Amino acid sequence: MQTNSPFRPFRALFFVLLWVAAAAGCTDLLRPEERTPEVIRTPHFSIITVGPEDTLAGLAQTHLGSSSHTWRIARYNGVTSAKAGDRLVIPFAHSFYGGLAPNGYQIVPVLNYPKIVSAAKTTDAVSARTFESQMLYLHTNGYHTISPSQLTSYLRLKAQLPERAIVITMDTSEAWMFETAYPILKRYGLRAAIFIATRRIGTAGHMSWQNLEQMTADGFDIGTSGHSGRHLTRLGAGARTRSAIETLEAEILRPKKEITTHLKRPCRFFAYPGGLANDMIIALLKKHGYRAAFTLERGENAFFVDSFKIHRAVIGATGGSKQFSQDLKTFITADLR
């Protein structure tokens, strides 16, 4: 005859607890290892792990839509290249509006080349050899050529720019632009904004619309200096009549339409012939949809400059390397704390 042991209930409880503990242990063994996700996304940035084949340019193309934004990833993370296994922040929002920093603010040099020839014969012309050495200097020293559109967005506090951002401009429709300057700029990965007088396109010694189309395909911007390229301040000098205003409007509006028709791209930027402008000219440019205009007056282009009075440094044969270096200044030191 069996007798009930006083320890039997406790023995059953012991086995139940042992089973629960074992089950819990097995659950821990089966639980996958918790790891940091490969990509963390927010509306303002992503954090990614660099893969073995990744480059900064490739990451910019994938996450920011263009390799031209490589500098944004490099600047935000303080790196010059992507290293496999590193965690990098991909910033979607701009964080340096106006180029402001505690120790100063950014300025954007805008260079203007009146003419480039095989051998400089006048003070306003630069030899092809000198031009090439200057472009090589920009390329090897980390300067970024930006478009007038990027500059305008910066001036309106809508975008940030690379630390060494510059604009290169030529006010010409002459053939040397396509035959001499364009190949040199392309060789060093640089681009320019070209302001043409549309009446001269296709005439002897000048570029064709096909030339301009080829350059726009390579990232060059085509703006205008009017239909004829004549000084606009002289056309309307001393006159406020309807006839004078209509003459000015034709010089401003006709090339805008021609460029849009031939190149299938909007024309939004103007270079004042001779660098001269007045309030009426500026008002007409705004009326007809131009976003900015360029003078020939030296000066600093900080975020607070008037977008219809953008300064340019004219690069001639007599300036020398010292003047060229001064024209490339991109930061003004000031205590802004």
Compose a concise summary of this entry:
The protein is an alpha/beta fold. It folds into two domains: 39-93, no CATH class; 99-333, Glycoside hydrolase/deacetylase (TIM Barrel, Alpha-Beta Barrel), CATH 3.20.20.370. The protein contains eleven helices and 16 strands.
Describe this structure in words.
- By secondary structure, this protein is α/β, with parallel strands linked by helices.
- The chain has 2 domains: 39-93, no CATH class; 99-333, TIM Barrel.
- Helices cover 37% and strands 16% of the residues.
- The protein is built from 11 helices and 16 strands.
- The protein has helices spanning 8-30, 56-64, 70-77, 128-140, 148-155, 176-187, 209-217, 232-235, 242-263, 279-287, 320-327, and strands spanning 39-41, 45-49, 87-91, 100-101, 104-106, 110-112, 115-117, 125-127, 144-145, 165-170, 193-196, 221-224, 269-271, 292-294, 313-314, 331-333.
- Strands 6, 9, 10, 11, 12 and 15 form a 6-stranded parallel beta sheet that branches. Strands 1-2-3 form a 3-stranded antiparallel beta sheet. It has a 3-stranded antiparallel beta sheet with strand order 4-5-16, with no helix packed on it.
- Strand 9 (144-145), helix 5 and strand 10 form a beta-alpha-beta unit.
